[in-house]
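queue> pop job 88
queue> type: inverse folding (structure -> sequence)
queue> payload:
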């Protein structure tokens, strides 16, 4: 449905709405994939105590996990599609800085991403266990690297002091990852 709405907005040359509907469709595809994994494997992936677990960091991490378990061709399409979708969100929606030609060029990558996630990804117990064991875990090395980088820039900010388990800053603590659009990290870190 969101794909069709995005196409309609593009037909009207509304690149901002087309971009955002496309980005929302990628997020929805990822959420539904996790739900299908949970259902087919009977494994809880999203902890029940998390009220709203879906942040950019979690979506990005899920994409990295999927890429690690996908074949080479799917991996390339997933990376290209997720990067295009994120560009739609930031440059197309937030900054409204994409031309109709830009959106027409990138849209097939986003739609291919959605098709892969909706129809082609593995739904077995091994994948469900892998995603469960890695998606909502705390990566101490990643946190240590952030602290080290920040220490080289000056005193620690509230970003480091008030961190949720999933990497988001708590509301009202300043300009942490939840308060702005970071440059997307590479999926191959």
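queue> result:
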């Amino acid at each position: 449905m969101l794909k069709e709405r995005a196409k309609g907005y593009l037909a009207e040359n509304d690149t901002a709405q087309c971009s955002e509907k496309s980005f929302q469709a990628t997020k929805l595809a990822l959420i539904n994939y996790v739900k299908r994994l949970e259902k087919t494997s009977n494994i809880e992936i999203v902890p029940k105590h998390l009220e709203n677990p879906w942040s950019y960091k979690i979506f990005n991490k899920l994409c990295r996990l999927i890429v690690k378990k996908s074949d080479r061709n799917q991996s390339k399409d997933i990376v290209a599609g997720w990067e295009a979708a994120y560009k739609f969100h930031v440059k197309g929606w937030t900054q409204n800085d994409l031309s109709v030609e830009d959106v027409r060029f990138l849209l097939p990558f986003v739609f291919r991403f959605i098709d892969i996630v909706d129809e082609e990804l593995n739904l077995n117990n091994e994948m469900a266990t892998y995603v469960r064991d890695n998606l909502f875990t705390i990566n101490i090395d990643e946190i240590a690297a952030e602290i080290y980088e920040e220490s080289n820039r000056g005193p620690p900010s509230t970003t480091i002091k008030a961190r949720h388990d999933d990497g988001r800053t708590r509301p009202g603590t300043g300009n942490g990852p939840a308060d702005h659009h970071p440059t997307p990290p590479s999926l191959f870190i």
